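Marked as duplicate of an earlier ticket. Keeping the data here for the record.
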Amino acid sequence: MQSRTGTCKWRASLKRSKILHMALMGTSNPSGEDEASQEKPFVLRALQIALVVSLYWVTSISMVFLNKYLLDSPSLQLDTPIFVTFYQCLVTALLCKGLSTLATCWPGAVDFPTLHLDLRVARSILPLSVVFIGMITFNNLCLKYVGVAFYNVGRSLTTVFNVLLSYLLLKQTTSFYALLTCGTIIGGFWLGVDQEGAEGTLSWTGTVFGVLASLCVSLNAIYTKKVLPAVDGSIWRLTFYNNINACVLFLPLLLLLGELRALHHFPLLTSAHFWGMMTLGGLFGFAIGYVTGLQIKFTSPLTHNVSGTAKACAQTVLAVLYYEDTKSFLWWASNMMVLGGSFAYTWVRGWEMKTQEDPNPKESEKSTMEV
């Protein structure tokens, strides 16, 4: 009986690994990689995990600081946040197509799904693309109006919206302990807003954009699950179509908001440094999707969330040091409440999922006897 239970758990773990590999790479036979990873010594696996987590931290933090420079740098004085976002989507779409072409030409050297633009698929992805545009645009607008140090608190309500939308749209209930962690996050958010106001650095515009960004992040996660079958379960195909749709939908916004006219009068429009930084921002936008999948692949979704929380803490400290800010005790307390609540929510959800996957021994014995 124990051997049969162990076999079932092994099969379930293998199935989850296959699903993850299919989502990231668009293939369905990762068993060879699983066996190879099991044969690797512990020190090598630990070193790989440390490198992948470090790569995720460096990429994510660098992207935030670079976007802050592009959106709100006194030296650039570029007031075109929609164009910055549009260009990053364009770079991501071109990188996806380029890697797909390389994978077709050299299948053994590059592992990337084949990408062909299908207008029917693009139309089916369109509702998600609208949410995706809102997510990346509101993220950048929030970063434009608030400091990097407050950026994490300003966008901290994603977990709360996840719980709320899961109940309203999916009719999924949340445990009491998970709700308590959400209450801690909300408390930290309001304390952070209060302290930013007390220090005279609060931007209500940036805060509203941060709340809208959190809402769009939650909606994006829900709609992504619904449209994944349209792209054969491939995250990279979905990324390609999302960014293609975003580039098309951004064009009328650039005209309506007058950003093309602002670009025409931008003094650094022909500067190689400016376009290099813009392209680097697009590269980081593409890379964050890759390193996120890589971190989940080498660790687990739970560990990825914990790593993201710790990264946000490090990012806040670096921002305070880099910009030479002076923050009060309550300001730091608000950050700790947000980060602590996020970590606690991740731990509670992980514990609940583990409890659901590991049934009561007596129930397992009963089900085995019935089979």
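See parent ticket for discussion. The radius of gyration is 22 Å.
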